[in-house]
Design brief:
GO terms for molecular function: ATP binding; protein serine/threonine kinase activity. By secondary structure, the chain is an alpha+beta fold. The protein is built from 15 helices and 15 strands. The radius of gyration is 23 Å and the shape is globular. It binds adenosine-5'-triphosphate (ATP).
Amino acid sequence: MSDSDILIKGDLIKSRWRITQKIGGGGFGQIYQAYDKLRRELVAVKVESNSQPRQGIRMEVTVLRRIQNREHVCELFSGGISTLYNYMVMTLLGSSLSELRKNLKEQCFTLSTTLRISLQILQAIESIHSIGFLHRDIKPSNFAIGRKNVRQIFILDFGLARKYTDYDQHVRPARIEAGFRGTIRYASVNAHNNRELGRHDDLWSFFYMLIEFLIGSLPWSKIKDKESVGHIKETYDYTRFLTNLPDEFNKFLEHINELNYDDKPDYDFLRSLFNSSIQRLGFHDDDIYDWEKSIEQKPITVPDNERIHHHNDLKNNRQLIKSSSRTGLFKKHTESDHNLPLQQSHFVIGTGDQQHIIHNKLSSAVENRSPDTLTRRGQATSNGLFTYISQQFSNAAASGAPSVFSQWLPHNGETLTDDDILKGNKSSSSRADERATTLSGERISSANIKNNSAGRTSHMSIDEYNLPPKSQRSIEQNIQVPFGTYTKNTRRQNPLAFNLQRSSRKKSD
Ligand SMILES: Nc1ncnc2c1ncn2[C@@H]1O[C@H](COP(=O)(O)OP(=O)(O)OP(=O)(O)O)[C@@H](O)[C@H]1O
């Protein structure tokens, strides 16, 4: 627990959701796991202090409420405000695509996985566009797999969303100057240029995600300076990305490149591109996803100490690749099997006058194409475990342990209605707009969240439930660290300006 935590384990929201642990602290909100006494299952609760200047939960609730019951959208159970914070309660999801990719040895998804998740991501993006909103922060950490169905992808975090249509469903006129929105690594060139964002900008972010999935990084991954990244994106020869990719990626790029602010993307066309690649390359809907292999090898959750080792392994691996590239130990690989992770041979990284081209071929993982037993076994294990955990929490909740939280001033319990939000739409939207700048992959953390938890004690402990030691250990291991890495890497920012490798070809060539 940290000083800035808004809730602590044992806190009870609206007499129904009991906080079991913190699972993430985004730039603007905090995410907790809670036990829903009514539904008898674990849920996710996102909260933000209602005294912090930038608030996004109102917008999130507005958007989520409108796209309920879509395939790639989590369920919204409640949203409201208390005297101290705004909150929303939703389906508890599994690891994000960012974590899943980083947990793979090669740090790349295979082409099979990438193409199949692309269909899901595209559908999620289309869903939000179809209700008149842009997401404006499309990135791998804003997509997560389900916990019950690890093959389903869900879109998250609508805190930067913006309505792009008016009441007549026409596209709103673009503002001359809109300010930067999004996350530097995945933001479109328009975002870098402070232009009004349109539907195609979400697809540009999606395109950058795809390249990162397949290659393991982006040419600007290590650069934090917004202007430098914007400059690289503007001058980069994107065809470099496409050399080893199926031609459909080129067509995807061509399509989004043609779109202007108020154009509607041809989602069906983009879908058909992914489908035709999938068919031509012989991939199947029921092939396993890359993370399902690792689910089989290790439990869903990774204890903290293991994560540190894993992180170090990756660091060593990268170091090896870097030094080997200079000695030519890793040869440029011209493998044509699209199902293998792609090489990073087109990446030029340079500081000052020194530049070196990383030629590497990360170790290949041949995909297992007969996944049935593997998948089912993995899922059965996790489902069984979570059923068990749910039962334990359900028993615990029934025992009615009092929470100090319940001594707080009563909740207003006010659930935000669409009307309410629409009335304040402009202001909540512009407030969300103020949550502008985000660093590479991470938002700037919100300042001044008041510590409201001082002096409170926790009333929810697994120890209290007299479980057999083995079950207790198993629950502790799995509920204390339910997902991948939430520890944010504090990467050192390189103060040196990067000497950018300018492409001889312009984007429009
Ligand atoms: N429903 C959920 N179930 C499980 N984990 C979740 C859920 N919602 C969010 N998370 C986790 O918490 C992280 C932060 O959540 P979210 O992106 O909504 O907050 P944020 O404050 O906008 O974060 P950021 O600024 O990093 O984008 C996500 O990357 C995700 O891993």
